[in-house]
Amino acid sequence: MQKLSVAQARQTESIGQQVTLQGWVRTRRDSKAGFSFLELNDGSSMANIQVIADGELENYETEIKHITAGCSVGVEGTIRESPGKGQATEVQAERVILYGTADAESYPLQKKRHSFEFLRTIAHLRPRTNTFGAVARVRNCVCNSIHQFFQENGFLYIHTPVITASDCEGAGEMFQVTTLDLNGPPKAEGKVDFAQDFFDRPSYLTVSGQLEAETFACALGKVYTFGPTFRAENSNTSRHLAEFWMVEPEMAFFELTDNMDLAEQFLKRIFKDVLARCPEDMEFFNLRIDKTTLETLQGIVDSEFVRLTYTEAVKLLEASGESFEFPVNWGVDLQAEHERYLTEKHFQKPVILYDYPRTIKPFYMRLNDDEKTVRAMDVLVPKVGEIIGGSQREERLDVLEMRMAEQDLVAEDYWWYLDLRRYGSVPHAGFGLGLERVVQFITGMANIRDVIPFPRTPGNAEF
Length: 463
Ligand code: 4AD
Ligand code: MG
Fold this sequence. Notes:
The chain is an alpha+beta fold and 463 residues long. It is 29% helix and 25% strand. Helix 3 crosses helix 12 (435-443). It is elongated. The structure holds 4-amino-1,4-dioxobutan-2-aminium adenosine-5'-monophosphate and magnesium ion.
């Protein structure tokens, strides 16, 4: 007998087939006529399939009539046209195998709607809910699109290390990796002697694969890295995780405008694919989570992003008449409230801000001729704010060394990065897209902790 997924069994083409289905029961309903309906879900789609289990089945009284939400079952039977509305097909069971029971008293997922806060405390069971199933499928679709986009456009997928000795963003938000005994570490001259640590030096979980990706771009042209990154920033917000996934393309012979063009094309491709490939899940998000998401995504696919310098943005904000909690003036880092004003109120679409003050951006961004700004770009979207951060890289050795000194970085620690500027240096650029931010934006989920399977935030590392 052929194994089908629930998604396949729901198609009218499957009518008449003898099949096996396996999954988890969402509900059981008994008919007075002596048979039962089981709603079966296996994660292949948002929708369940209805199983009709006849009273004649051998284990009807002993098992089927005791099936509750959460039980796992196998069903062998025939797919037929469903007379009920809301579904094209149903399964007439010839055999129901009960794999695992789920005690109705203690099973935490009951039929009522649970809050997302509660579901975070049962992160091991929340994938069985409609919302988290849909998030997982959309997240998968986004990852697939990311790889397809780059593969179709001649990029090589590079794996950059998770453990590193350099702080790419220079923000000092790194988790240290050590095998030293923290209760009595070896000391030299009163300080911890990292020469005796596993890597003979202080080492950390990476905040970004960019620096290593640059080495491959400066040999192979267009590359991307896509992996987990870690930030020990103690920010308990709805947009920050301590562990998140970032996709970072890096391109030789790209300047800032090329970089912006790529970022815009890339985001549009992801949105287009999700709309085309996850219609059922997106309908759900649009209905239950954020009533504007379908319209917003379609609107973005069909229109141009706004491009604006930081300086112009500051002028706009100053002239806005809004009373911001953090006042704006040239030189300050923009806060979420400022980004939201630009994307939600003023332009009502994605905005690419570029040419930021050198003082608020990392050392590797290319210095402009005005010597006040660097060739940075941030892509901002409504609600979520910054979704992409990137720049053209400083390819001039002397300027890069000067910028590093300015930010108190020790040039010797970055000798290999500087070598890229010593030997065959080229203009190049790249950016980083936060995977969870993009999934958050697409689904309309309010909290970033609900778009990653197991969120890591200050105080939370269970599961
Ligand atoms: O702007 P960021 O810090 O840029 C970089 O790390 C560059 N090295 C990327 C590059 O040019 N290759 O981070 C890039 C993106 C942000 O725009 C945001 O979407 C996401 O990563 N991000 C986070 N997402 C979740 N939680 C956090 N704590 C994040 N920090 C950054
Ligand atoms: Mg950034």
